[in-house]
Inverse folding.
């Protein structure tokens, strides 16, 4: 009987512990705000800024997009996630289900997934068209944000959203963070075929005609006429180049730069709603330019008297380029962590899926656990291994910046000095 009593006592103890654990989880669910009752969000010039994120990726990048979404999530922001047309509908539905499963998203309703994406050619104008479409959607569903940020599935943040919001609270809301130059440089090479590319590289090394080659590149950048069938065909089709060329435009100056931008809401309203003809004129021109996403916003903003002095010449990204530079930056890994953390950049690119350095960023910078959003001052739940602190929240209008906010703040302050002196703002490179 003694052995039987011990067995019954053990069974009873296990049952009681299970019951206590279930009650704890139930109470945690009850004490968090219910669906449809979000805490109030205050916006405007006297409150912290908000960001509209456009996060895009191709087939197979659902998990990357969702991980990035969790890493940059904050209830005050707005999010639009985009899986390209080549991704399956099942993958798209799975991404939408994962987003809705986040408790804060169910309450604040601040994230959407594009349901019917268009065809995209990275080298053509359809990529630019999809970015403009995303900005138009974000303006329609929520026009209260201050900056529009473009990210790809292979990007990752180097600061928390509390850090970013704290630093941008001291930035004039109308400024646009866009890497730009009128010197088209090595990016012209993308307009050559691979055969022409290697022939010209051979000419450079054999004859030292670098200056001549650079001038030829400029002409090849802006004179060819390319057509992107993805703009009007349902099936996938590659871009093609017309046999004739068009003269270099003299009605406006071409600018180029990084396709990753942080643009003000007012400038995007100008591009999309267009109270004058410049954005539409340049959109028609860049409709037949290769890599138009690396030139459209840059050329519009630097040819507009209203916005040309609102540029900050940076894309806020940490990237490492190969030597000689290629079309894309190198993939980052653990060996680059210290350099990234000390860079003062807001984001970094590009990363392989599930690279170990992402776990290190989560742990050392974002304080984020797998499948949880990055915690901030808005999260009030108990922080434990079985409980997500962001399943409960208090005032979402307060922020608690961390140590890396100082580095980002120093970077922004240095850039602001250039803005005050009007240095690197839409400056035209003089040919010598």
């Amino acid at each position: 009987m003694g052995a039987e009593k011990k067995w019954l006592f053990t069974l009873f103890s296990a049952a009681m512990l299970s019951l206590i654990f279930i009650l704890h989880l139930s109470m945690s669910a009850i004490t968090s705000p219910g669906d449809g009752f979000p805490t109030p969000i205050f916006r405007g010039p006297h409150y912290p800024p908000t960001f509209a994120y456009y996060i895009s990726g191709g087939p197979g990048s659902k998990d990357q997009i969702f991980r990035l979404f969790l890493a940059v999530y904050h209830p005050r922001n707005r999010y639009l996630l985009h899986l390209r047309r080549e991704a399956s509908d099942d993958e798209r539905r799975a991404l939408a289900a994962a987003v809705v499963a986040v408790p804060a998203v169910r309450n604040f309703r601040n994230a959407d997934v594009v349901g019917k994406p268009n065809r995209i050619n990275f080298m053509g104008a359809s990529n630019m068209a999809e970015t403009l479409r995303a900005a138009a959607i974000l303006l329609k569903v929520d026009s209260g944000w201050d900056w529009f940020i473009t990210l790809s599935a292979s990007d990752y943040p180097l600061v928390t959203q509390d850090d970013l919001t704290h630093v941008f609270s001291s930035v004039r809301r109308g400024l646009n963070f866009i890497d730009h130059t009128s010197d088209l440089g090595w990016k012209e090479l993308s307009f050559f075929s691979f055969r022409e590319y290697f022939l010209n590289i051979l000419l450079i090394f054999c004859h030292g005609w670098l200056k001549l080659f650079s001038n030829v590149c400029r002409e090849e950048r802006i004179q060819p006429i390319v057509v992107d069938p993805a703009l009007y065909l349902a099936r996938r089709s590659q871009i093609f180049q017309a046999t004739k060329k068009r003269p270099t435009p003299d009605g406006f100056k071409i600018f180029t730069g990084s396709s990753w931008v942080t643009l003000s809401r007012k400038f995007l309203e100008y591009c999309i709603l267009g109270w004058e003809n410049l954005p539409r004129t340049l959109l028609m021109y860049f409709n037949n330019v290769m890599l138009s996403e690396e030139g459209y916003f840059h050329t519009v903003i630097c040819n507009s008297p209203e916005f040309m002095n609102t540029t900050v010449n940076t894309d806020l990204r940490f990237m490492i380029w190969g030597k000689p530079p290629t079309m894309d930056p190198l993939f980052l890994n653990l060996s680059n962590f210290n350099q990234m953390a000390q860079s003062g950049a807001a984001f970094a690119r590009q990363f392989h899926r599930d690279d170990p350095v992402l776990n290190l960023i989560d742990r050392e910078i974002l304080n984020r656990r797998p499948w949880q959003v990055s915690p901030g001052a808005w999260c009030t739940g108990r922080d434990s291994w079985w409980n997500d602190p962001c399943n409960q929240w208090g005032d979402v209008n307060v922020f608690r910046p961390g140590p890396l906010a100082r580095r980002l703040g120093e970077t922004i302050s240095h850039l602001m000095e250039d803005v005050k002196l009007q240095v690197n703002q839409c400056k035209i490179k003089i040919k010598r």
The first strand starts at residue 51 and ends at 57. The domain at 51-182+257-420 is CATH 3.90.550 (Spore Coat Polysaccharide Biosynthesis Protein SpsA; Chain A). The radius of gyration is 25 Å. Confidence is low (pLDDT under 50) at residues 19-37, 186-219.
